[in-house]
């Protein structure tokens, strides 16, 4: 199986998840606690950036470095924006 196929396999697996509990179990099976914390922190940073929050506030609230915040800001694309918009509509 090619590396690209590994990614597709993972993406397809994530798309089958139906509950937060299922998602939690999958991430706990595949990632270390530190990796989960890092991914969660980056997603929180993306959310705050999408809300127009400033770097200093994001650093204080998440503990992320300015380098991490800058990287997330630079690489945020359609994927993050799509998910964040969907979350916003479900929170309303």
Protein architecture, described:
The protein is built from six helices and no strands. With 92 residues, the chain is mainly α. It has two domains: 1-30, no CATH class; 32-92. The model has no long low-confidence stretch (mean pLDDT 93).
Give me some keywords for this one.
92 residues, 2 domains, mainly alpha, 0% strand
SSE layout:
Blueprint: H1 3-15, H2 20-30, H3 33-50, H4 55-62, H5 66-75, H6 78-91
Mean pLDDT comes to 93
Fraction of residues in β-strands: under 5%
Classification by helices and strands: mainly alpha
Order of helices and strands: HHHHHH
DSSP helix fraction: over 70%
Task: Summarize, please.
The protein has 92 residues and is an all-alpha fold.
């Amino acid at each position: 199986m090619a590396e690209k196929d590994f990614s597709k396999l993972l993406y397809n697996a994530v798309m089958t998840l139906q509950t937060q509990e299922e998602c939690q179990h999958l991430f706990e099976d595949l990632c270390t606690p530190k990796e989960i914390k890092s991914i969660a922190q980056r997603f929180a940073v993306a959310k705050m950036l999408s809300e127009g929050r400033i770097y200093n506030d994001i650093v204080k609230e998440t503990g992320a470095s300015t380098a991490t915040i800058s990287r997330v800001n630079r690489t945020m694309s359609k994927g993050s924006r799509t998910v964040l918009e969907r979350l916003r509509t479900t929170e309303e």
